[in-house]
Structures are given as structure tokens and as C-alpha cells.
Design goal:
- The complex is a heterodimer of chains A (342) and B (277).
- Chain A has 342 residues and is of the alpha+beta class.
- Chain A has 2 domains: 201 residues, no CATH class; 123 residues, no CATH class.
- In chain A, 31% of the residues lie in helices and 20% in strands.
- Chain A has 11 helices and 12 strands.
- In chain A, the strands form 2 sheets. An 8-stranded mixed sheet of chain A has the order 3-2-6-7-8-9-1-10, sandwiched between helices. In chain A, strands 5-4-12-11 form a 4-stranded antiparallel sheet, with no helix packed on it.
- Chain A is globular, with a radius of gyration of 22 Å.
- Chain B has 277 residues and is α/β, with parallel strands linked by helices.
- Chain B has a 7-stranded mixed sheet with strand order 10-9-8-7-11-12-15, sandwiched between helices. Chain B has a 6-stranded antiparallel sheet with strand order 4-3-6-1-2-5, covered by helices on one side. A two-stranded antiparallel ribbon of chain B has the order 13-14.
- In chain B, helix 4 packs parallel to helix 5.
- The mean pLDDT of chain B is 94.
- The chains are: A alpha+beta (342), B alpha/beta (277).
- Chains A and B meet through strand 4, strand 5, helix 3, helix 6 and strand 11 of A and strand 6 and strand 13 of B.
- The complex binds flavin-adenine dinucleotide, iron/sulfur cluster (2 copies) and FE2/S2 (inorganic) cluster.
- One iron/sulfur cluster binds next to helix 8 of chain A.
């Protein structure tokens, strides 16, 4: 275990930045946290949680696939990926870290998405335990422990220090390069921090929320439930919930004529949009109800069916904060999940 | 970052032949610039074709894998990509990636069986690959019946090949039908599902259906009436697709992705999926 005085954090960031680009949560002018690249003087924000999730690092909003040049009847394919060299991210929360595992199951399964894979391989993740989990947090529902955030280097903080515990070879290698900024420490202070966090988690309003009644092979049980009508009634189909969600993975592929050629890129898309599945032959999801149902069935039933019971929600609470009509997955779980959830 | 080799990055294909099948269907022959097949495939699999700047679209590979020289695609004009393809000339380059999807079980469940192919309109495209595969390995299969229908005589895809080749093969019976009476047509008139019932097949065979959703629905009902079990009937599904590899999240029915787990399904497998297609 290593530690550094909080007031000296800038030294650590400077040392890491010498080795590799470093990104960390920073307060923007609207007082919202977002991941920014560190440059001298950039202040780390302890705010929970970044408005946009950390999936952006691996599955950015747009990703170049390739460029094309055409002349006459001929086409030339030109590589044009803008993949980063090595980089480090500091301050990733336990929920977002788990979301990488959810996305890995999609993008790293055959055939492997090489853009995602390269980004994943090139990143060193410093997590941060959550000292002040919010009332919108329910990571515990999905067996995520905000006091034990994992990652390449697991970090903890108290009033005075940040503690760093490298867990993987990548994490150890990077910390070894910046040891001069760090002091040694025993496990004791972190044990205390963990115990305090676990106590706080137990007092969160959503601590006892259970998704147990959902999971693999429950399609028949939930698909035709009449509650979907009421739940989806006010949904605007704006897609906000899908864009802020760290585990939403739907994308579109588009071509853009640059004037000199064509850029093909993929960009986030949303199953909440009416044209998502539209075809000349028909539209399998005619109403917002069906699109709404798709999003939640995917997270709570379809994804678990294909991934050994793992849910595709990490309880980060972003959709609770951002939905303009205050609909969210917690309401869905409570409504459909049975009496256990009151 | 050099040498990214991603499944979404296509290769170049050259269109070496364009056959006009019907007023709105053309069949395109595609090879790589050095004259080879872009990749090997199995009957029922698909490929993404595109013109940069116009878009990408999914098509069944209608040629049989036993064709070692080129791939063919029968394409119906309906939107941006298909309209663009319909106005190109031989020699035009396009892009291609694939093969995608789960093929027909030609070497397992179909082997040694009598086969009944039922197609409507452009729905013949995926079945043609299977039919020509079966014709190539004729000794591995029993009797073959092909029921194929279209709006009119002019809308029958692959008409010349059907008449000149399939109809002349021993052990293959072709039953053509068109929706309405037409001058110069002395064959059967009527919709495919009714014709199948009229023909009244014995149930000791595997049936393979492809066509518009409504045709599939009624034909399946007809086959059930004739005593077919859903485990004997295969079909292929069509949903909007972008990636073709089970990642973009577009083509799922419940927990199944049509691009990856389909497009070929046995009809009893479809019963297990939620009714959203
Ligand atoms: C597995 C599979 C196999 C297919 N095989 C063939 C084939 O062998 N021959 C053939 O002619 N067509 C086939 N199709 C249909 C073909 O993909 C669509 O006709 C094509 O995508 C339309 O593209 P477009 O750019 O011309 O149309 P667009 O300009 O994209 O759209 C025109 C209209 O078609 C709709 N559309 C978009 N994608 C699809 C789609 N996948 N299916 C139906 N409508 C769509 C649009 O919403 C719009 O209403 C297949 C589709 C799938 C999924
Ligand atoms: S569904 Fe909501 S709470 Fe769950 S991971 Fe997505 S944004 Fe977070
Ligand atoms: S659930 Fe809320 S955030 Fe999501 S699409 Fe509907 S209105 Fe928008
Ligand atoms: S087309 Fe992308 S998941 Fe099937």
C-alpha cells in the first residue's frame, strides 16, 4: 500500500503525466464532474459521479472505422483510426469499473471489436472508493462494493491522504515509475475507510433494492406484463438514459462525406429511438412501450441470459438523475420485481 | 496506430456481372480486385455490401459455397443502397464484409432427408444458395420439391436458371405459381401458402421457407395443417442490421441476435422468442 498527501496530489498527477496521458474527474463551469485530461493545475474533483460515464474512454461517442477515397469506379480503403497510445484514468468509481466488464462481454467476444480492445489494453485504471455514496446509488443491488472498487490501482481517500494499492501488473508497473511521489503505508488506514464506507452504504435508501426476481431466461415471465404500459406511458424517447448509461452499447454506423472522401464512423445510438429498428418491411417495435421494454428487458433479462446471469446495470444512478420525466430502472425493478422491493 | 484489423472494416469487391432478374431485382456477381472470392461462406449466410457515402446494407449470399469463383447477390430495389446498386455498371467497385449469421444445417439436419423449399419473391435469394448446394451434393439428399411464387411471371427471380437447370434435374420437382392470371403463363395461379396445401406434401421431410413475413406465417400454418411439426421447418428472419456481429444491439428478438444467432431459425425456436418481429 502506498499513500500521498492530498495536498501533494498534483505531484503524483505530474509524475504520471510524464509517463502517460492522464484523465481525471474535474468540475466544469456548471459544477458538474467530467473526465478531463490533466495539465498542470487541473484539480481532481471528488464529486459523485461524472455526468458522462467512463465508458467514453473505450466506447467513445464516435469512433472512426475507416476512410474511403473513390475515383471513377474504384474505391480505396484507408485506415483512419484515432486510437490513443497508453493512457491512465484516475478516479473511476466501482460501478463504472464494473461497467467495463459488462461491455467486455460484448466487445471482446468473437469477433473482437479491435477499437475497443486496443483502448482497453492501452489504459491503466485508478479506481476510487466512494466515501460519500449518494441516495441514487444502488451498486450493492448488483453485488458491487463501492468500498472495494478494484481496477489496476485501487485508491481510497480520507481527509488527508489518498491511498493507492496496485492490483495488476499494469498498475504496479506504472506506480513503480512514480514511487518518488509516494510514501509506504500499512493496510490499517484503508481498513478503517472501508469499514466506514460499508456502514454508510447500508444506510442508503436503495441499499435493499433487489433484482433477484430478474435474470437469465425470465423473458416469458416479464415480457407481457401489463405494467409496461404504465411505466412507459410518459417516456419521451429522448435517449438520455441510454447515453449517460455506462453499460448501454447500441451503435449506428454512418458515412460522412468530407469533401475529399468518405469517413465511416460508428456512433452511439439508442434503442429508445423510433427509427432504431425501422425497416421497409415493417417496424417490430411500433410504440414507445416496446422500445422502453427493450431497454429494461435487455438490462435485466436478455443480457443476463447471454452472460451467465450478469446484469447489464451497475446501479450508478445516472438515469435516476437525468431522465426528464423521472422514470428509471429502479422504478422498473420495484414495479415488476415483486413484493421484496416494497 | 497502425494495422487495425476490425470486423467492421470491409474489403473491396468488384462487380463483374449484373443480371436483370425482374423489374426491381438484379443479381450482382462480386469478386475481389484480384479475381477471387472475398471469403468462404455457408448456405444461408449473409454479407454487408456498401458504397461509401451511400451506406451499408445486408444481403443473403445467393450463390452456393460450391461456386469457387464468385459470390452472387440478388437485390431488390427499395432504398438508398439498393437504388444505387441498381444503377451501377459492370466494373464498379463496392465494399463487402462477412460472412454473417448462422447457416442452414445442410450437413446435419438436412442430410439424407427429402427437402421442401418454399419461397416467395426475393425470398428465393437465401434458398437458392441451399438449393444449389444440395444439387451439387445430390447424393447426400433425398427428393427435392421447390415451391416458388411471385406477383407475376416477370417477378420470378432466377427464372432462367430454374427453367434451364433445376427443372431438368432428376429428383427435383419445381412448382411455380404467380398471384394473378397473366398472358403467356400456363402454370399455376394462386398464392404460395394455398398452393402448398393443394400440393399436399407428405410430412416425412424438412421444409425451408423464405419470403415476406405474411407469406411465412400462412405457409407455416398450412404446413402445420398438413401435419408438419415445427421442428421440421426452417426459415430465415430479416431485421434491421448495422454491425452484423451481435454488438450494435439492433437486431435482437429477446435475447437472440438475428445477425448472429440467426438469420436461420428452426420454427420451434421462434416460438421461444417474444412476439416482437
Ligand atoms: C439477414 C438479411 C438478409 C437480407 N437479404 C436480402 C437479399 O438477399 N436481397 C435483398 O434485396 N434484400 C435483402 N435484405 C434486405 C436489405 O438488407 C434491405 O432491403 C436493405 O438494407 C435496404 O437498404 P437501402 O439502403 O436500400 O434502404 P434504406 O435507404 O436504408 O431504407 C429504405 C427502407 O428500407 C428500410 N430498411 C433498412 N434496413 C432494412 C433491412 N435490413 N430490411 C428491410 N428494410 C430495411 C428503411 O427503414 C427504409 O424504410 C436482407 C436483410 C437482412 C437483415
Ligand atoms: S441503467 Fe441507470 S443506474 Fe443502471 S447502469 Fe445504466 S445509467 Fe446506471
Ligand atoms: S426513460 Fe427517460 S431518459 Fe430514457 S428515453 Fe424515456 S424519457 Fe428519455
Ligand atoms: S446487426 Fe448489430 S447486433 Fe445484429
Amino acid at each position: 500500500m502506498k499513500k500521498i498527501l492530498k495536498k501533494n496530489l498534483q505531484n503524483l498527477f505530474a509524475a504520471i503525466s510524464k509517463e502517460t496521458d492522464l484523465f481525471l474527474p474535474v468540475l466544469n463551469s456548471a459544477k458538474n464532474a467530467e473526465f478531463k485530461k490533466w495539465t498542470e493545475g487541473t484539480e481532481y474533483s471528488e464529486e459523485l459521479n461524472t455526468v458522462r460515464s467512463a465508458k467514453d474512454f473505450f466506447f467513445p461517442q464516435t469512433e472512426n472505422i475507416c476512410d474511403f477515397k473513390t475515383s471513377g469506379k474504384n474505391i480505396e480503403i484507408i485506415e483512419n483510426s484515432e486510437l490513443p497510445e497508453n493512457f491512465a484514468v484516475f478516479g473511476v468509481r466501482a460501478c463504472d469499473l464494473k461497467s467495463f466488464e459488462v461491455l467486455d462481454n460484448v466487445f471482446l467476444s468473437e469477433p473482437v471489436d479491435s477499437f475497443y480492445k486496443t483502448r482497453r489494453e492501452n489504459a491503466v485504471i485508478f479506481t476510487m472508493a466512494c466515501n460519500r455514496p449518494k441516495e441514487t446509488c444502488f451498486c450493492h443491488t448488483f453485488n458491487i462494493n463501492a468500498a472495494d472498487p478494484k481496477g489496476d490501482v485501487e485508491c481510497f481517500e480520507d481527509e488527508t491522504y489518498v491511498y493507492l494499492n496496485p492490483l495488476t501488473q499494469k498498475g504496479k508497473d506504472l506506480l513503480n515509475k512514480v514511487t518518488s511521489a509516494l510514501e509506504d503505508e500499512t493496510e490499517e488506514p484503508v481498513k478503517k475507510i472501508k469499514a466506514e464506507i460499508e456502514e454508510r452504504l447500508k444506510n442508503l435508501p436503495l441499499y435493499n433494492l433487489s433484482a433477484e426476481s430478474f435474470g437469465s431466461d425470465k423473458t416469458e415471465e416479464f415480457f407481457n406484463r401489463k405494467e409496461w404500459d404504465e411505466l412507459s406511458e410518459a417516456c419521451l424517447g429522448c435517449g438520455t438514459c441510454t447515453f449517460v448509461c455506462p453499460t448501454c452499447q447500441c451503435y449506428d454506423i454512418k458515412d460522412f462525406n468530407t469533401g475529399h472522401g468518405v469517413k465511416r464512423f460508428r456512433c452511439w445510438d439508442s434503442c429508445m429511438y423510433s427509427d432504431f429498428t425501422k425497416m421497409s418491411a415493417g417496424q417490430p417495435r411500433t410504440h414507445q412501450k416496446e422500445r422502453f421494454r427493450q431497454r429494461f428487458m435487455h438490462k435485466l433479462v436478455y443480457y443476463p441470459t447471454n452472460n451467465n446471469g450478469m446484469f447489464s446495470c451497475v446501479g450508478c444512478g445516472r438515469c435516476l438523475k437525468k431522465c426528464p420525466i423521472s422514470m428509471n430502472i429502479v422504478k422498473v425493478i420495484k414495479k415488476l420485481g415483486g413484493t421484496a422491493n416494497g | 496506430m497502425a494495422n487495425i484489423n476490425d470486423p467492421l472494416i470491409p474489403v473491396i469487391g468488384v462487380v463483374t456481372d449484373i443480371r436483370i432478374d425482374t423489374p426491381d431485382v438484379k443479381t450482382f456477381r462480386v469478386v475481389t480486385p484480384d479475381g477471387k472470392k472475398a471469403f468462404e461462406h455457408k448456405p444461408g449466410q449473409c454479407a454487408m455490401l456498401s458504397m461509401p457515402g451511400v451506406g451499408e446494407a445486408m444481403f443473403s449470399i445467393t450463390s452456393s459455397p460450391t461456386n469457387k469463383e464468385f459470390m452472387e447477390f440478388s437485390i431488390k430495389k427499395c432504398g438508398c443502397v439498393t437504388q444505387w446498386l441498381h444503377q451501377i455498371e459492370v466494373g464498379q467497385q463496392i465494399t463487402i464484409r462477412g460472412p454473417y449469421g448462422h447457416p442452414f444445417p445442410v450437413d446435419t439436419a438436412f442430410k439424407g432427408k427429402d427437402l421442401l423449399f418454399i419461397a416467395g419473391g426475393i425470398g428465393l435469394a437465401p434458398l437458392r444458395s441451399v438449393i444449389n448446394y444440395v444439387r451439387f451434393y445430390r447424393e447426400n439428399y433425398g427428393k427435392v420439391d421447390i415451391v416458388y411464387g411471385s406477383r407475376s411471371k416477370d417477378d420470378l427471380v432466377d427464372y432462367k436458371e430454374i427453367i434451364d437447370e433445376w427443372c431438368n434435374d432428376e429428383g427435383i420437382n419445381v412448382h411455380l405459381t404467380i398471384d394473378r392470371e397473366q398472358e403467356g403463363w400456363d402454370g399455376h395461379v394462386g398464392f404460395v401458402p394455398n398452393y402448398v396445401k393443394e400440393l399436399g406434401f407428405d410430412t416425412n421431410k424438412v421444409a425451408i421457407i423464405c419470403g415476406p413475413p405474411i407469406m411465412i406465417k400462412f405457409t407455416l400454418a398450412g404446413l402445420t395443417e398438413l401435419g408438419f411439426d415445427k421442428t421440421q421447418v426452417y426459415t430465415t428472419m430479416e431485421l434491421r442490421m448495422k454491425c452484423g456481429i451481435g454488438k450494435c444491439g439492433r437486431c435482437n428478438i429477446g435475447s437472440k441476435y438475428v445477425c448472429k444467432d440467426g438469420p436461420v431459425f428452426r420454427c420451434d425456436e421462434l416460438d421461444e422468442l417474444p412476439d416482437e418481429y
